[in-house]
Amino acid sequence: MIAVDLAHWAVDLGAPPARGGTPTAADLALADRSLQDTLACAIAARQEPIIARSRSLGEAGRWAVASHIVDFDDLHMPSTTHISTVCVPATLATGGGPRDYLAGAGVMARIGTALGWSHYSAGWHATTTSGAMGAAACAASALGLDAAQTATALALAVPASGGVRRAFGTDAKSLQVGFAVDAGLRAAALAADGASADPRAVDEWLRLVGGETDVAADLETGAPAVPDGLAIKVYPCCYALQRPIAAIGEIRSQIDVADVQRIVVRTPDCTVTPLVHHRPQTGLEGKFSLEYAVAAALLDDYCGFATFTDDAVQRPEARRLIPMVEIELGSGSGGLLAGHVELDVHVDGGVLHSTRLELPPGAPTRPPTSAQLDRKIEDCLAGSGVSARELSWPLAADVLRHTLADATAFQTTVGANAR
């Protein structure tokens, strides 16, 4: 049974060293980097209206919403899931640490990979379909549940394993993640209190939602806790936009934007699956628009937070360029980084500027530089009063509580005064 196999793996991995826990130094380094990345994204979201609106969720769910809403959080490429936006909040809210994060992240990665690209491309939001069980595994590890209880927790999380991509570009995308995290913690608490469930429910659910591969095949003892690592975003938008933005960046200095007449983008069809907004009207929609991302990459020195505001999407220069973007889709498979992207920018006088890119910065096999990571953290923390050294496991929960609680109180007061 899948739940039983995953539960034994997670319990063994999450055990402290004295009881034979097996994370490697590389696993633990990934956990620390994931914590810093996720906390930075959550703190960057402190002014987002959804922080106050999500106060009816549990603590972990609110933290998950915060870490996901700006779409700057890491991504596991084989499963197309935002693992840390689920597993960091679930771990911190239950008093866990890096081993508990890795136990849940490994479960989520393996379930998500078993669901496969066909699950995501069919319209499911894989972060939320696999996320409830990932959160349950984090919480079960942090609470010290044994393998039988952990398997029960995974089965109890099945009813919450849903969510669709149509939510992209709206608050519902991050809220779905919060729902999944809260459900995972609830499932682990129920298992700890003795609730029963049939672990075979996970096998049945995986079959019903179109699982492609054998989860057990990814449980080799020598495999990394999170197989294939995590991709780190260097731009705060959908991962499908990281490559075209980086590609434009390679030729941007050669182009006078006022002279641009036509832009042709060639990319495999699977790489644009999440990009559902072709004429975006808001900053959130702009994070899922290939046309806007290409226009913005030509206009902005750096596609940061200021690029993905409502005002930025509505600026006249962007509205002029967006209709000039032509997208030519080829056949492809393998997800958001299949093949490569090619861009041709035609300008006045018949001059053509072309670029081609296979891997964006931050891809698992093209890790971000220290400078890129430092810039990201600094941008996220700017004006928050939080320093990078506070983004550590012992301090993390308190940092989130204070930062997001202050933001919620402020936004609630402003809203009340406005009424």
From TrEMBL:
Instruction: Please name the Gene3D superfamilies in this protein's record.
Output: 2-methylcitrate dehydratase PrpD
Q: Name one Pfam family in it.
A: MmgE_PrpD_N
MmgE/PrpD N-terminal domain span? 64-202
For molecular function, the Gene Ontology terms on record are: lyase activity
* The MmgE/PrpD C-terminal domain, residue ranges: 235-386
Family under the similarity heading: Belongs to the PrpD family.
Q: What is this protein called?
A: MmgE/PrpD family protein
